[in-house]
Amino acid sequence: MSKTTNKFAPEVRERGVRMAIDHERDYPTRWAAVVSIAEKIGCVPQTLHEWVKKAEVDSGKRAGVPTEVADKMKALEREVRELRQANEILRKASVYFAQAELDRPFRR
């Protein structure tokens, strides 16, 4: 589970990203556009800048791991961790029952 909360609705994020990209040419730098638009949508510029970078990665305009792939990797890593824990529990249980079988008195 994520340690951060998504304070902004997906629509606000998408609109902010779209505005930053569309109006970038109206400002001397991308950062200037991001600062201006961040004030309008009510977030800090660093947050909007991260959203823009993530949108560029997801669209293929920037190198990096797309959100969909990152989410899938997280889910698979979680599954592997759970399976390893289950295997460890089963291993310990088999050792316990094998030892119990050896400790049992022999009957003819």
TrEMBL record:
Species: Sphingobium lignivorans
Domain of life (superkingdom): Bacteria
Protein name: Transposase-like protein
Pfam annotation, one family: HTH_Tnp_1
Coiled-coil segments: none
Signal peptide interval: none
Gene3D superfamilies linked to this entry: Winged helix-like DNA-binding domain superfamily/Winged helix DNA-binding domain
Upper lineage: Bacteria, Pseudomonadati, Pseudomonadota, Alphaproteobacteria, Sphingomonadales
